[in-house]
Amino acid sequence: MASPGSDIDLAAVDLRTIEQFLYREALLLDEKRWQDWLALYTEDCFYWVPSVVGQKDPVDTISLYAEERMRMEMRIIRITHPHAYSQDFPTRMSHVIGNVMLDPEGGAGADGGMKPKADLVVRSTVHILEFRKEEQRLFGGGVRHWLRRDGNSFKIAMKRIDLVNCDAPMEVVQLFL
Amino acid sequence: MAPYDAAAIRALIEADRVHRDIYVDPALFEIEMERIFGRAWIWVGHESQVKNPGDYVAATIGRQPVVISRHSDGKVYVLHNRCGHRGAKVVGDREGNVRFFRCCYHGWTYRTDGTLRGIPMQRGYEGTAIDLADPRYGMMKLPRVESYRGFVFASLAQEGPSLADYLGDARSSIDDMVDRSPQGELEVVGGCFRVVFRANWKIFLENLNDTMHPMVVHESSVDAGKLWAQQHLGEGAPDPLPVRFTRNNGFPYEFWEKLTLQAHASGHSFMGGIFPPRRTDPVYLAYIAAMEKAYGKARTEEILAVDRHNTIFYPNISIQSGYQQLRNIRPLAVDRTQMDVYAFRLKGAPDEFYKHTLIYSNVVNSPGSIVMPDDHEAYNRVQEGLVAQATPWVSLHRDAGRERRENEWTRANGTSELPMRNQYRAWLSYMTAEA
Q: What CATH number belongs to B42-160?
């Protein structure tokens, strides 16, 4: 069984390796090691958090996040800036990743037309506990990672996070989810 | 409720300063809901949200639930979202299309113009005092509904100025937004962002034409754009849009000072542009070609020469006409506000053009924006700080007395606090008007 557009045999992919990769991404986010985190992504990556359930694409409909590498780098500059007043009290996060599985459909219909060059697509579920000042918030939803083989590991060509509350009234979200 | 008679309310607003209670006192918030949101023309939606008969979209006026619908007669109605029977909210979701509305409780049904259509076991009402022909047993229409170029406004008050009088010459900003469409029409395509902050609604309105804040509040996102450009772009290379939409907030004070602010007696105001919409990239050139085909060269030039940033229509919307954005203010409580942000497609413009509109939305107006969190931090801190009893007065003195009156408008230099002083004149007029 090969993922569409790839010669990787999914049956031969070690799921534990993939899980460890996703856990590492979560750890880097929780520890705010932004440059190490960004290094997990390809140069032509795309980071997408839709604002609509089942959103078809990131260019014809508004998104909570729709970021190519440029905007990801800009966000990192901002949230680490000494005068980012909205980070005077820095946001803290804790990610829990579960339900990791290879997507046998290879992310079909979910890539928003971005057509990331990927060898395999991994689905997972994330729960993110976020805290700033007085309030703790909970975000959660389904995640897809489009992964490209990179030596013995992977790079993320695209990440899509479908939040359960993507269209809820919400206060600002500042960090990467 | 109110220890506030007209004299007490007048005492809260001076020519160049306002009392902190207008931001923190829940009793004043209740009066605002009654006298401002209960009387003024309130933007409720856009006609393109209800294109076809049976289309509806839920909205609020102040805190009151309403529904905008397109009836089989082709007209747009704004109805109280309340069942004529026991008062349940009839429309429970955000939008959709129906043949008729049906209350979830006892099954009363209503046509999309709000008239009562049917009641189960209607014979139970025979011989009772109820008059089912009375509109109060339908979904009641709002007393006044008018549209201007697709923008639908409604008022809870039976009487008041016409929409044309209310908009006055500020409608020229709506014209600016609509004229930019080669077909002269706008369209809401996707949904909207719903962003909540912990501050009084008026603090947001004050900020919109406050040009002394960007270089301070937005330093982090200005640098995000500036540093990124330094690290990645060659000398003289054009800024990618996300860079342009962030670094321009860092223009020096002299730039902002030279902008013109215009304030209208109704409380409206606008400022000159800061992100000139005109560009030279292929998408924009294709757009200009579409405009010239529709309007000719001279008229196109005239339309595109207009450059305004935020235009506020007091009390509940602000539009960015050059970027087709609309921010709708929904007060939730004295210290809590929701802002719904819509992006409009210019009908007849190339598809790629709307993608650029959405880059603006995503960078500037999304809950995940890298620009807005610092604004909201400032609003929230004003709300927190005003709890202090240090002094009851909030200063709006900057360039007071240096504004000049011209026709409907009062004009001032770009860094004046004129728009805020003007908003409080309008506030006072609503709050002290006889019912």
A: 2.102.10.10
B190/A84 CB distance under 8 A = no
Asked if residues B50 and B28 have their Cβ atoms less than 8 Å apart, the reply is: no
- Beta pairing, strands B393-395 & B404-406: unpaired
B418-432 and B26-35 helices, crossing angle to 10° = 80
With CB atoms and an 8 Å threshold, state whether A81 touches B220. Answer: yes
CA distance B179 to B291: 9
Contact residues, chain B, for A169 at CB < 8 Å = 194-196, 338
Alpha helices in B248-323 (DSSP H): 253-258, 282-295, 297-304
3-class DSSP state of B130: coil
Locate the domains of chain B by residue range.
42-160, 169-432
Residue B378 and residue B3 in contact, taking contact as beta carbons nearer than 8 Å:
no
* Fold of the CATH domain B169-432: Naphthalene 1,2-dioxygenase Alpha Subunit; Chain A, domain 1 (3.90.380)
Q: Are residues A62 and B362, on separate chains, in Cβ contact within 8 Å? A: yes
Domain architecture of chain A: domains with CATH: 10-163 (3.10.450.50)
Q: What is the tens place of the pLDDT at every residue in B144-191?
A: 999 999 999 999 999 999 999 999 999 999 999 999 999 999 999 888
Q: pLDDT of A88-117, one tens digit each?
A: 999 999 999 999 999 988 999 999 999 999
CB contact under 8 A, B376 and A51: no
In this prediction the pTM is 0.95
Residue B74, token pair as written in the block: 């082709």
Q: Which of B195, B323, B345, B362 has the most A C-beta neighbours within 10 Å, making it the best mutation to test the interface with A?
A: B362
The answer to whether residue A81 neighbours chain B at the CB level (below 8 Å) is yes
